[in-house]
Design brief:
By secondary structure, the protein is an alpha+beta fold. It is about 40% helix and about 25% strand. A hairpin with a 2-residue loop joins strand 9 and strand 10 (about 305-320).
Length: about 425
């Protein structure tokens, strides 16, 4: 069967995608092109990994593309720029949430659980930077550079950063939402704003705990996360922190609480746990700290010879009282699971979905395009990892699947029937 037809049948049957499309709105007073052809083109552009609005405009010249989106003409890149500034961001977020809820209700996120718990990973990523273009929402920083005469000079660089919220797993990785970091704002402030909206969109029971980097080791932030209804696991890196120094002293010379071989990461792991530690006065509650000592052998070739070298690393995590009854291995797995947002979200979105490309430098347009990217990414990932047998068996890469979807549009099928009721 045609690959694109299979994809469309899957997303319409499993996610009621026609309904999601119907629920989208925009603020154009006198639209010349209906919203549906524009939205479908933008989503297809994400799924087929189109790199710019200009490239997407060229795609809309394809006759069967026009049949699929129900618009008989080429759509200009200016039309995509115009609509991107006028999307209803609430509708886009509700669309992403509807897809993710269907995934959870269909038990697709079960493999992401650790001892029955779903951990949400939070992290920030820089989307765009420039030394010439800026907008009202650009953050700024000073950069030292050397000019043509070898003299150091300070220049202003403008950039945009977003905090992403993702559920990571061995099979499927889904992004729930993202939030821009405003000029002069700390990352933790944007993260709390993001978590507050996620609670309203998804409810408090969609996931169980939050796993975060050392940037968020702040009493008020961690207290706010608990007030929202979630436990947390955070990386400890700052040597000067008293809780880390105390945990290090109490666990020194003690036998590990657990020792095992991690098959997935191919290393021997020893875990120590220290409970009932004080963190800060602003937090006002006790925490537990888990120390991981990991040892493995690294094999590499140098000078034509195979060399084996012993390697080791130490990790420290702090966890809230909400996880007190769970085994120490849960904290270890949750702490390392956080890296999935870097390895399986940012890297993949940047390498294959042009995350670092600014389609149109305007705050609403940038956020709208990012939400459309998330929507297309989740739909494509769900189809590939849950439905495509060739991908699951390792016979087809995700890049090859996207290429097959593109080629499939050239087949003579009744494409106009897919969204005739959308």
């Amino acid at each position: 069967m045609n690959e694109l037809a299979q994809f469309l049948a899957y997303v319409i049957k499993v996610f009621a995608f026609n309904r999601v499309v119907r629920q989208m709105h925009d603020s154009r007073p006198y639209p010349q092109i209906p919203l549906r052809p524009l939205l479908l083109s933008l989503l297809l552009g994400v799924i087929l990994r189109t790199g710019s609005y200009l490239d997407l405009s060229k795609q809309t010249k394809r006759r069967r593309w026009q049949h699929l989106i129900h618009w008989p003409k080429r759509i200009s890149d200016d039309a995509f720029v115009y609509i991107s500034e006028r999307f209803d961001l609430v509708d886009l977020r509700l669309g992403v949430a509807a897809i993710n809820w269907d995934l959870k209700n269909n038990k697709a996120l079960e493999s992401s659980k650790i001892n029955g718990l779903l951990f949400l990973s939070l992290d920030a990523n820089e989307h765009f930077h420039s030394r010439s273009r800026c907008c009202r929402c650009c953050c700024q920083r000073e950069i030292q550079e050397v000019d043509a005469n070898g003299q150091k000079q300070t220049v202003i660089e403008y950039y945009h950063r977003y905090v992403f919220a993702q559920l990571n797993g061995p099979k499927l990785n889904v992004v729930l939402d993202l939030e821009p970091i405003r000029p002069g704002e700390a990352e933790a402030q944007a993260a709390l704003r993001l978590l507050g909206r996620i609670r309203r969109l998804y409810g408090v029971r969609f996931f169980d705990a939050v796993t975060i980097d050392s940037w968020y080791v702040q009493g008020p932030f961690l207290k706010a996360v608990e007030k929202l209804g979630w436990a947390w696991v955070v990386v400890l890196k700052q040597e000067r922190m008293e809780v880390l120094q105390e945990a290090r002293a109490l666990s020194a010379g003690q036998k590990p609480d657990l020792e095992f071989y991690d098959e997935a990461r191919r290393r021997l792991v020893k875990l120590w746990e220290v409970k009932n530690l004080a963190f800060t006065k602003s937090y006002g509650r006790q925490v537990r700290v888990v120390h991981s000592r990991e040892e493995w052998t690294e094999h590499k070739i140098m000078g034509g010879k195979k060399l084996s070298q012993a390697q080791s690393s130490d990790w420290w995590w702090m966890a809230s009282e909400g996880l007190l009854g769970y085994p120490v291995k849960v904290i270890y797995e949750a702490g390392h699971r956080r890296w999935g947002i870097e390895n399986k979200a940012f890297n993949e979105l940047t390498q294959y979905y042009h995350l670092d490309h600014c389609y149109h430098h305007e705050p609403v347009a940038m956020l709208a395009q990012m939400l459309i990217l998330i929507l297309g990414f989740v739909l494509f990932s769900a189809y590939a990892m849950l439905h495509s047998q060739r991908v699951r068996l390792g016979q087809l890469s995700l890049k090859e699947l996207a290429h097959d979807l593109d080629l499939a549009l050239e087949e003579a099928l009744a494409w106009e029937l897919w969204f005739d009721s959308a």
